[in-house]
Every structure is written in C-alpha cells, then in structure tokens.
Amino acid sequence: MNFAKSLLYFMLPLLALLSSSCDMEKDIEVDLPAHKPQLVVECYLEPGKPIRALVLETAGYLDPIALPLVPEAEVIVTTHTGQRIKLSNRPTQNKESGRYFTHTSGEIMEGKPGDVYSIEVTDGKGRRVTGFTTILGQVPIAKVAWNFNDKDEAYLLTSFQDNGNTANWYRYMTHRDSLNHGAQRDFATSDELTNGIRVSYGSGYDYKEGDTLIVTLFHIEKQYYEFLSSTDAAKDANGNPFAQPAKINSSVTGGIGIFTNLAYDRKTVIITK
Which residues form the signal peptide (predicted)? Predict the structure, then answer.
C-alpha cells in the first residue's frame, strides 16, 4: 500500500464522522473572569543617556483597542549612591531607536559596572512595582567581516571574546541603514556552550555590495535574557491554537515588565568587495 492509498484509508472514517456531524451545532457560553489591570514597566538604563521609562497597564483580551496609559503613575530611580531621581510624566520618543517613553529625566545615568540601581513605580490605585539592576560592562566586538559567493551575495560574521570567569548572556542585533528600521537579526543567547572562547555569529548570504549595516552586541543580565525569551515565546503562542500559553518572566515585582541596563558595543560597516 503506497502513501496516498494509506492516507485515504485512514481519512475515510474521519470524513464519514465529519459528514455525519456537520448539522450538529451547540452554542457554548464561557464565563471569563474579570480582568484586573496590572502595571507594566519598561526601563533600560544606558550610561551617558537620560533616564527614561515606559509605564502602561494591562488590558483585557476583549477590551477596546487603546493605549493603556497611567497618567498618575510616579517613577523613582535610585542610584548606587542613594540619590532618588523622580522622572517627569512627559511622553516622548527616542529619535535614534524609535522607542516611546512616558516618563523621563534630565539626569544622565553614570553608573559603572557593579553598581546597583533600583526602580519604584506607584500610582493612585495603590499599585507598586519595584526592581533592581546591576550595571554590566561592555563586551567589545573584536571583528566584523564578510565574504561574497559567486552570485555577489555576502554573509556577515561578527566575532567577540567571551569571559570564561563569569556566566554571560548576550543579545545580538543587525540593522540595515538605520536603527529605526526593524532588525534583520535579533536573538539572545548565553555562553553555556561557548564559555571562555572566541564566539562568532554568522548570517546567510543576505547582503550585497554597498549595504550599510549596524551591528550591535549587548552584554545583558540573566533577568533580561529570560524576559526576552519569554516574550518571544508569548509572541509565538499568540493566535496559535496548538501552542501552550506563555508566561512573561518579569524582572520586576508587583507588576509586569523589565528593569535592566544596556551595555553594548556597536559598529557600522559598509559591505564592499
């Protein structure tokens, strides 16, 4: 019995079952529990940059589509020296990255590797979100190289040295022309299998002569790695009836979100022969 005949053999009972039940309909009412909104916080500290945060709240799955702002939210970031910086509720957009923020401060983040910062977000409903981050050091990109095939297509190779004395996590991104465009490559990984060695991230033959590429290597905290992994899983599960629901691994308590720091090295290259 060939594959086609085998498939037909197993499908006949199923087709008979479907045809016999096509007139059977039953409306089922599902009582969904009332949604209790939670605060959602995102704050990424960058050395030499103003301190900014995004504060929203969750919305029910069937709620009208709207930006769930929290106008009365207060955000305080405490530095490693104990200085408490209150961010102003002033929605703005970072022109370089295109990222939106609801709260910002003129204070510049000047933390050094090992310094610990904290965040506290409160609102008029008595909700409170807290989190901590330890400033990391930059891991330099050692080399960005490329090579052409016989079709004038080039692949990219980015190399760096992992520190074998510590556990490390990384996020690697490549953009074409501008950071405002979506990343062509974006993934997070650990050094579990590459501890202490020179690491290289490659690509397919995706580029051509004259392309301008922005290559970024982030040295990230484990809590940020877990947050990224869980948000990716949630995106994959959204709308997929066969996927397990995914829970966001937040680094904050009292709500949902991430408070971390961004230590990165970035290089801009033009693909040439």
Answer: 1-25
